[in-house]
Amino acid sequence: MSLNFAGISPHPPIIIPKIGSLDDLQKVGNTILAMKKLSSTFKNAEIDTLIVISPHMLVYPDKFSICGMKKLFGTFAQFDHPDIVFDYESDIDLAIEIDKKAKSEGIKTLLYNNDGEFFELDHGLMVPLYYLKQQQETAFKVLPIAYSNLDRAAHFSFGQIIRDVAKTYPGRVGILASGDLSHQLLQNNDGQEFDRKIVEDIKKSNVKNILYYEDEFIEAAGECGYRSILILLGVLDGIKAKMEILSYEGPFGVGYLVANYTLKES
């Protein structure tokens, strides 16, 4: 099996030491410790290519977007730190195989290429990468993928397609679902209930429960991680995995979940 790493990560720039104040960093201390633990797991997995599902790429209503550009580049200039730089190569071969497999299964995808010099990384990609790369001694490729506005079944099926391609792909592949949970923790109880429920369902691997949340329940939570998680769950379908919640907290009214799946040969 070529799938060797799977996890869930939040993406608040405030957990980056140069961006968050000392007080902020103390408030998200559990998240930072969990990200460092996830980074250690990532290092041990010796990944060649990391697929990252980001909510902050261009989201299409009817298709999944797969980065088809070779060079990836980004900085935290938007957060007053252009000195924090991310420079990666994408895995074009893997992108092409996922795109081809999805289309053969009737799922619409776009192999995105804007004909520019590079693909610009967003903070949904860069925040997790900031931590995952810290302990790396060798370079790895990154394949950004965006979810869509298609239904939940399509997201789960798209994840299964990624899984099938990864299983036969030469090299060690990892997948990370980037996303924050409810953005409404301070405004209403719906956000708190959403986070409580999804964290518990993820912990217990209640995949069917997660797939069938009511639309109103999800919308009231104001989240940006649900569809990333659906794709991840599709990737993990049929794979023996031990899941671990590394941390959950929401000190600023947004839910931050860090989780790891230890994958086992099936």
From TrEMBL:
The cross-references to Pfam families, in alphabetical order and at most eight, read: LigB (PF02900)
Q: Work out whether the entry's keyword set contains Oxidoreductase.
A: yes
Key words of the record? Dioxygenase, Oxidoreductase
- Oxidoreductase in keyword set: yes
Gene3D superfamilies to which the protein is assigned, alphabetical? LigB-like (3.40.830.10)
Q: Name one GO molecular function term.
A: oxidoreductase activity, acting on single donors with incorporation of molecular oxygen, incorporation of two atoms of oxygen
The record's InterPro entries line, in alphabetical order, gives:
Xdiol_dOase_suB (IPR004183)
Q: Which domain of life is it from?
A: Bacteria
Question: Start and end of every Extradiol ring-cleavage dioxygenase class III enzyme subunit B domain?
Answer: 9-258
Can you name this protein? Extradiol ring-cleavage dioxygenase class III protein subunit B
Report the source organism. Berkelbacteria bacterium GW2011_GWA1_39_10
Q: Tell me the classification of the organism that encodes this protein.
A: Bacteria, Candidatus Berkelbacteria
